[in-house]
Amino acid sequence: MILESKIRPIEWAGNHVKLLDQTLLPYEQKIVCITKYQEMATAIKDMIVRGAPAIGVSGAFGVSLGAKSLINITDKNEFLKKLEEIGESLKSTRPTAVNLAWAVDKQLELAQEQILRSAQDDRVFIDEIIKKLEENAIKILNDDIEINQRMGEHGTKIVPKGATILTHCNAGALATAGYGTALGVVRSAFARDNTIQVFADETRPRQQGARLTTWELVEDNIPVTLITDGMCGYFMKKGMIDLVIVGADRIASNGDAANKIGTYTVALVAKAHNIPFYVAAPHSTIDMSIKSGDEIPIEERSREEVTHINGKTICAEGVNIINPAFDVTPAEYITGIITETGIYKPSELNGLF
Ligand code: MRU
Q1: Active-site residue numbers?
Q2: Domain 10-149 is classified in which CATH homologous superfamily?
Q3: DSSP category for residue 150
Q4: Of 31, 190, 199, 328, which has the fewest CB atoms closer than 10 Å, so is most exposed?
Q5: Where along the chain do its domains lie?
């Protein structure tokens, strides 16, 4: 059962991409129009669009827009070389979420396949590939919504009646093309049982939980309580949390999962209180090329994200800052991984792909 949500952070408008600027939520709902791949790269880096599946979809449109900028190239090998450079520039914007590289590579593979197969002259080929890349980006966007809805359906099986679900960061409609991964499970569960509720961690430094998760759940009338990051143990000890569901940016083949910084701490505290800890993520988040979470690159972001809140400094000037954007939760703390094809134990991933 699907709970319809109108929240769409990425839309294709025929000749440009419309992004809902997530840096401004919940204060302002502003749409940013992206017409060039360089603008898309900046939007991903500056987190106008964020969340692993959402930056994947955006990367796919980035390649499509990049292909259009190569319209004057007449040699198809030169076209492909330039397109690969564009793909690399998009991939380098955020290194942890594998969905970005996955979607960009899907687009590049499509271009490579076409070039191998094409008997047409170069000009016809380039026009055709530009059209196909646009169609494929639209397909990746639509597929993502459908995948999240399927994930939501599978996930309802692990949500007890009247459950209070703790989540960290934002793994919702805003972090995907729509519906969400962890919050997709919440949406599907809520459609069946409107007595469930969410506790949302604030998620410092960028406050995705406070700014984005509460915004989208309030928009969809799903009860949500905001807590600060340090409070989860308190509420777990009091027996007020029934399960944890988070998203992921990259899952290694052994089931270790990278997600927003602070997730590992939540998993440890959940384990200490025997509370199930689930990760909801599509297959495109699973990176079978790496053996464990130790191989996942962790993005380091600017010191200002930590030293400032809403443009105001919150600490002594000159203080040392380290700002890793993600951490890795070892597989042993993960009860199950909810995907579009079912729920798996971390140890089952190896037999799946
Ligand atoms: O830095 P962000 O906001 O892009 O981080 C997002 C997260 O960590 C999400 O939990 C993850 O991408 C899963 S989104 C479905």
Answers
A1: 249
A2: translation initiation factor eif-2b, domain 1 (1.20.120.420)
A3: H
A4: 31
A5: 10-149, 151-352
Ligand 1 centroid – CA 60 distance (Å): 18
Measure 106 CA to ligand 1 centroid, in angstroms: 21
Domain 151-352 sits in CATH at 3.40.50.10470
By three-state DSSP, how is residue 290 classified? coil
Residue listed under structure tokens 């590049």: 108
pLDDT of residue 32: 98
User: In 3-state terms, what secondary structure has residue 11?
Assistant: strand
pLDDT at 139 over 90: yes
Determine contact, residues 134/64, Cβ cutoff 8 Å. yes
Over residues 198-252, the pLDDT tens digits come to 999 999 999 999 999 999 999 999 999 999 999 999 999 999 999 999 999 999 9
Mean pLDDT of the chain: 96
Instruction: Report the nearest atom of ligand 1 relative to the CA of 168.
Output: 10
Nearest CA to ligand 1 atom 15: 171
Q: How confident is the model at residue 75 (pLDDT cuts 50, 70, 90)?
A: confident
Compute the residue count for the chain. 353
> For residue 80, which amino acid is it?
L
Q: Is the pTM of this model over 0.85?
A: yes
C-alpha to C-alpha distance for 197 and 190, rounded to whole angstroms: 8
Pocket lining for ligand 1, CB < 6 angstroms: 50-53, 97, 169, 171, 175-176, 181, 208, 247-249, 259-260, 325
